[in-house]
## 1
Amino acid sequence: GIQVEQSPPDLILQEGANSTLRCNFSDSVNNLQWFHQNPWGQLINLFYIPSGTKQNGRLSATTVATERYSLLYISSSQTTDSGVYFCAVGTGGFKTIFGAGTRLFVKA
Amino acid sequence: NAGVTQTPKFQVLKTGQSMTLQCAQDMNHNSMYWYRQDPGMGLRLIYYSASEGTTDKGEVPNGYNVSRLNKREFSLRLESAAPSQTSVYFCASIRLAGSSYEQYFGPGTRLTVT
């Protein structure tokens, strides 16, 4: 089955810094989403981005489907950005595969 | 508009006990999923329901059963709980978008099996 790898596994930032999180996948996908899991465990949709580029405030994401990767950019990080960021992909049908996540800690 | 709701939020079971986790959505979506999340890991799909009246196995279905009661509700049952089923369980509702989809998650149920 499809493999999803996220990097880095852990990231510590000073408040105000920028960062790039990466999601590589081993096969063609027709669905890709980025989620943020906050420290209370809640999963929040960030982007639905099977291809192209989207921006939402300080966050933006780019998926290059032909090269099988997606990037999540966080600019001017804040302590509330802390948590785990997951990439999840689908290859057709309804099954979804999650990556193991990038754990982000933003220091004040 | 409550989105996706799950009950209970927390549960402790003894090995061999049974229980049902409830999930409901008010977004009029056809499809719903059940996932489990173990510490330090991503989510793994247990079962999904593409539409009312249909259910299918996901990645880790053993030890679980599901019921799609109606369009709004999708329940997950543990018939004989085992310590390996200690996990956080998330329900998701799916908005179809052409040939693809977006997932909206409930708050989760934290289950401990002793």
## 2
Amino acid sequence: GAVVSQHPSRVICKSGTSVKIECRSLDFQATTMFWYRQFPKQSLMLMATSNEGSKATYEQGVEKDKFLINHASLTLSTLTVTSAHPEDSSFYICSARARNLETQYFGPGTRLLVL
Amino acid sequence: AQSVAQPEDQVNVAEGNPLTVKCTYSVSGNPYLFWYVQYPNRGLQFLLKYITGDNLVKGSYGFEAEFNKSQTSFHLKKPSALVSDSALYFCAVRDGDNYGQNFVFGPGTRLSVLP
């Protein structure tokens, strides 16, 4: 199956700093990328959807100025958590889908801990 | 609107016994159905999907799922469970008539296979 990578896998930062998470589709062109957040023992919550070259579409309740998403190419999307606070600590998972594929493929996730 | 239900939070099964993880769905259009597995602190791994064709779909690691249109179900099954199958399982649905529609995930079912 298609491979999606995420970097970093784990990050610890101080409150008030910004953190960037990269998501790459390694062997296919991802026309659409998704960012999810997962709380412990819960399902995935879709944060935003981004199409290459256009602005991301954010789900209700997700602050677009806090969670900046850039989908600059068909293989790379980034999520920047700006001015992170402890309540932003979570497991962030990206997913990618190609135009000719029905399946979404997921990255391994990034564990963010804000102190 | 789309929705997915996984009626069991937890399923326990003895190693070597058959396992079933239940999923029912609701979608206005043509259902595209997926199963993913998540191991601790990892992203989601694709197991199998139903798009069209045979109602019995075979996937990775010996898993299979049966699409039942009349019961709007897509239960995940395996004839003989392994301890290594212990993980969190997510069912997802997308409206196949609307490419732009996002996945909707179920709440997840934790499978424990006891040695």
## 3
Amino acid sequence: DGGITQSPKYLFRKEGQNVTLSCEQNLNHDAMYWYRQDPGQGLRLIYYSQIVNDFQKGDIAEGYSVSREKKESFPLTVTSAQKNPTAFYLCASSIGTGPLYEQYFGPGTRLTVT
Amino acid sequence: DQQVKQNSPSLSVQEGRISILNCDYTNSMFDYFLWYKKYPAEGPTFLISISSIKDKNEDGRFTVFLNKSAKHLSLHIVPSQPGDSAVYFCAASGRAGGTSYGKLTFGQGTILTVHP
């Protein structure tokens, strides 16, 4: 079954710790994305990658880092520099970049930092 | 700066009636618009889209209308079904800010509840 998996579903961390969120896709998509959703707000783009070994900052990249060593994997690290890390994080992928390519989303990871 | 706005946080509709979800945008560089649907504990799924060269796009029970002069789009669901109960996000893309990437800018979402 093709799709996007994000693990874990819920993640709890202490303030000051870095944490890495996993995103894997078996759709053979070139492009992958990380979004953040906060209550009452839409999805905001953190980072995106158009191809392996390449990625660009989105609107709210500060305090986050990513890597794209494999086509199917795009992990997101929430660093201690991120001031408000508690949020719902969504990973997505698409065949290519651009609005005409439908983005497929994973189920999300809810991160709580205390 | 919220470039895409969904001013109604929630909407409640009776089964069989029409649901109308609204979305406004401020950036005139947006030229492609999408609607996504999201169930609890799941990621959003693509529903329907429209290019700025059109003013209407229909797919089964779902129709999206675009009014470029008013910078407004709406999603009509007819007839509404209980299974349509979800959060609906509108999103916009285009050469905003000079990028050709086509980044999606999302609205805040509207919670639709369809009562049996």
## 4
Amino acid sequence: AQSVTQLGSHVSVSEGALVLLRCNYSSSVPPYLFWYVQYPNQGLQLLLKYTTGATLVKGINGFEAEFKKSETSFHLTKPSAHMSDAAEYFCAVSDRERSNYKLTFGKGTLLTVNP
Amino acid sequence: DGGITQSPKYLFRKEGQNVTLSCEQNLNHDAMYWYRQDPGQGLRLIYYSQIVNDFQKGDIAEGYSVSREKKESFPLTVTSAQKNPTAFYLCASSPWGGQTNNIQYFGAGTRLSVL
């Protein structure tokens, strides 16, 4: 079964600093990969996804993520944090080979941005 | 506006009571999903449906039931058999089409508490 590990349940950065949120997956075949963001008491919104092609994926709000097959990783970065980036971030994977579409989510990383 | 509507936003359940959470989408999506979110646990799949009149159990289906009589609607019933129902419940939908890389779109959630 697929699994997703997000290192660090809570990450705190200063406004203007680099944001790095880590995600590793376990699968012998690279899955489809997603990052979602959740603001308090709201649903999830897609930031970006990787399916095929270029391994550096750009998303909304200045976020990007790089798929590294050798490291089974899909870390999320943003060069300069903004106060509005404070939220919880979820990495998710879906299995390319299964006929049923199921997303497996990591446990989430809460990002705090300090002024 | 196209989207997913969950109601109510807050719901309280008494001991031994069944409660139903509503999820409606006007995105013309084939697939719909129910997730449960607990603090620090990420999202766990309860049930999903890829087509009208068909649905499958997810990872934590015990104590829950669903129906899919219309494409737009996928209500979730939390039965009295679910002994720990307090959680944030999220409904999602996606354009299935047999592809596993489709984005899931989320509603704003229903927060269920036990009285």
